[in-house]
């Protein structure tokens, strides 16, 4: 049995759906990462064969206002899970982020797993500290991914695609950042890759994102093109958008280490992945078929 934290979130929820009865999903309120004794108790009782740690404090801008809480969840609690994984002698897979590469704005080459991290801001730094905690247990995987979207979990705050669809419906003109390059990724594809990796026992760090890269503006344009919606949308800069927390200007991840597994599930191009999600979404939320 595999213990999945963040089971009510986007990725944790998708992992639980794909694993079915093989997984036990853990999340708030019964499972609180800030209750370290409770976390220890739960996992010692479960004695899982593996722990997949997809829960996190993910509110990137809010994290700037509550760094202690963000670090406690993303770094300290991850350390508790690493200790438990060692005690239970089971693999631990920690989900991390492209944000660990926030400090190289002039970069044009995708980042490889061994490239030095340069996290900027509270969320990114806390996730990187989580990575360092996980390194203490040899049977670890660190999976860095980016821009997740897919079926929302019961607790998910939303995602970029859903935000664009909501704003697109409002009929207002939109302004979207066009100077941050990365690869938005579909949770169904990321979850398949995570499940595959766990079966390899090839521990280490892996970059798992869809293929190719884009900007948020171009991603938004593709969403509306696929939906066939006529939305007025214009590109803006990161400065014009003015978010509280810093975002990487270029955080494209090189997935060739994962691609070397010849039988690994594919990581389709981001445009194909988006089209797949929008088709799937029509089945999930039929009323949203109505455009505009
Ligand atoms: N979303 C992205 O674009 C993205 C990009 C790169 C990497 N990642 C990483 O990928 C992983 C999954 O992301 P996601 O989009 O699936 O996140 P998500 O939808 O926000 O889900 C995270 C889950 O963790 C739970 N959680 C938060 N604090 C907790 C606590 N103290 N104890 C127990 N559970 C807690 C959340 O519950 P509440 O909602 O109730 O707080 C939520 O159910 C995270 O590790 C994230 O850092 C995400």
UniProtKB/TrEMBL annotation:
Transmembrane segments: none annotated. It comes from the Bacteria. Keywords: NADP, Oxidoreductase. Pathway: Carbohydrate biosynthesis; dTDP-L-rhamnose biosynthesis. GO terms for molecular function: dTDP-4-dehydrorhamnose reductase activity. Belongs to the dTDP-4-dehydrorhamnose reductase family. This is dTDP-4-dehydrorhamnose reductase. It comes from Thermogutta terrifontis. The lineage of its organism: Bacteria, Pseudomonadati, Planctomycetota, Planctomycetia, Pirellulales.
């Amino acid at each position: 049995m595999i213990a999945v934290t963040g089971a009510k979130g986007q990725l944790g929820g998708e992992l639980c759906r794909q694993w079915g009865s093989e997984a036990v999903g853990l999340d708030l309120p019964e499972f609180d990462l800030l209750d370290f004794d409770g976390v220890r108790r739960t996992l010692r009782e479960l004695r899982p064969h593996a722990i997949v740690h997809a829960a996190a404090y993910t509110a990137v801008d809010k994290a700037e206002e509550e760094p202690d809480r963000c670090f406690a969840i993303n770094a300290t609690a991850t350390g508790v899970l690493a200790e438990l994984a060692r005690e239970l002698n089971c693999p631990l897979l920690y989900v991390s982020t492209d944000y660990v590469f926030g400090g190289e704005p002039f970069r044009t080459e995708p980042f490889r797993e061994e490239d030095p991290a340069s996290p900027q801001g509270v969320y990114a730094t806390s996730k990187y500290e989580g990575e360092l905690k996980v390194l203490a247990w040899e049977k670890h995987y660190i999976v860095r991914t980016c821009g997740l979207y897919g079926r929302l979990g019961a607790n998910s705050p939303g995602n970029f695609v859903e935000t664009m669809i909501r704003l697109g419906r409002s009929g207002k003109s939109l302004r979207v950042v066009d100077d941050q390059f990365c690869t938005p990724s579909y949770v169904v594809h990321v979850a398949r890759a995570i499940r595959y990796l766990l079966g390899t026992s090839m521990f280490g760090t892996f970059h798992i994102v869809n293929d190719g890269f884009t900007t948020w503006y171009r991603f938004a344009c593709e969403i509306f093109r696929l939906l066939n919606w006529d939305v007025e949308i214009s590109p803006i800069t990161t400065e014009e958008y003015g978010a509280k927390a810093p975002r990487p200007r270029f955080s494209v991840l090189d997935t060739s280490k994962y691609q070397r597994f010849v039988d690994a599930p594919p990581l389709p191009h981001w445009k194909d992945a988006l089209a797949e999600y929008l088709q799937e979404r029509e089945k999930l939320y039929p009323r949203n078929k109505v455009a505009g």
